[in-house]
Amino acid sequence: MFSLEIECDADDRDLLIAELWELGSSGIAELSPARVRAFFEEQAADRGILRRRYPGARWRVEEERDWVEAARQIWRPMEVGKRFFLVPEWRDDPTPAGRLRITVNPGMAFGTGVHETTQLCLEALEDLLEPGMRVLDVGTGSGILARAARLLGAERVYACDIDPVAIAIAGEGFVGSADDVAANSADLALANISPEAVIRLAPDLLRVLRPGGKLIASGFENGEVAQVQAVLPPAAAVRQKNTWISIIVRNEAASNS
């Protein structure tokens, strides 16, 4: 077995991962938002194609082992924010007192809780969601934010994603985006997606909010905040983990929709 460590633009990571699977990868580790390591069995991979496709990749010979099991051993339960306890689906660790348990399947879709943007959104949900609210999760991925909202007492949770596979993994929601949602239908909207998607969907993300509703937007880094804020109302709060940012805005114009 051998592996390739490949650097890419963060926005292109999902496409790169899909491409590596198609080329026969037997496992992929996301080392950072802009770096992945793909594992290949000697008999199942064409080294020539891989060298031509990824000329700057760093190659490494790997010892023979059960890499799926190894990955499972690495991924541990984690506490996020003040209330959440995220657990891989194959573990039975007891939930700490006062924590809300969310079972996740790491690697199947974006939103395992490991990434800073997911943590930022979970922490914002803790602060903003009140029981009885209606919540919209745009780009739901694995569905972790939708499940968190339900655990916090949301009356109704709408989840959507343009990727049918994500909806299948999440086990809820519909294939589509904010432009498919009726106006004034949510008290709180979540959009943990790319900055380009937030900018494109900004009018609809605000339109779907009820009077005084709030939007939690994330999925972008320091250098991308200004362009996102330019299409939204002034931020009520800006939060940061490492280089990743979330912003919270209130749609004062929602009552006129």
Structure description:
With 257 residues, the chain is α/β, with parallel strands linked by helices. The protein folds into two domains: 2-72, Alpha-Beta Plaits; 111-256, Rossmann fold, CATH 3.40.50.150. The chain is 28% helix and 32% strand. It is built from eight helices and 14 strands. It has helices spanning 13-22, 47-53, 67-74, 116-128, 144-151, 164-170, 195-207, 225-229, and strands at 2-7, 27-32, 35-40, 58-61, 78-80, 84-88, 100-104, 134-138, 156-161, 174-175, 186-192, 209-221, 235-241, 244-250. The strands form three sheets. It has a seven-stranded mixed beta sheet with strand order 10-9-8-11-12-14-13. The protein has a four-stranded antiparallel beta sheet with strand order 2-3-1-4, with helices on both faces. Helix 6 links the parallel strand 9 and strand 10 (174-175). Helix 4 packs parallel to helix 5. The longest helix has 13 residues, at 116-128. It is globular. 37% of the residues are buried.
Task: Give me the secondary-structure topology.
Layout: E1 2-7, H1 13-22, E2 27-32, E3 35-40, H2 47-53, E4 58-61, H3 67-74, E5 78-80, E6 84-88, E7 100-104, H4 116-128, E8 134-138, H5 144-151, E9 156-161, H6 164-170, E10 174-175, E11 186-192, H7 195-207, E12 209-221, H8 225-229, E13 235-241, E14 244-250
Parallel strand pairs: 6-7, 8-9, 8-11, 9-10, 11-12
Antiparallel strand pairs: 1-3, 1-4, 2-3, 5-6, 12-14, 13-14
Helix and strand string, N-terminal first? EHEEHEHEEEHEHEHEEHEHEE
Overall CATH class of the largest domain: Alpha Beta
CATH homologous superfamily title of the largest domain: Vaccinia Virus protein VP39
Class derived from helix and strand content: alpha/beta
Main β-sheet: number of strands, strand sense, barrel status? 7 strands, mixed
Give the distance, in angstroms, between the N- and C-terminal Cα atoms: 58 Å
- Structural domain tally: 2
In order across it, which strands form the biggest sheet? 10-9-8-11-12-14-13
Show unreliable segments.
none
Secondary structure: helix percent:
25-40%
Give the CATH architecture of the largest domain: 3-Layer(aba) Sandwich
Task: Give the overall average pLDDT.
Answer: 88
Rg over alpha carbons: 19 Å
Query: Judging from the principal axes of the Cα atoms, what is the shape?
Result: globular
| Count, helices | 8
Number of strands: 14
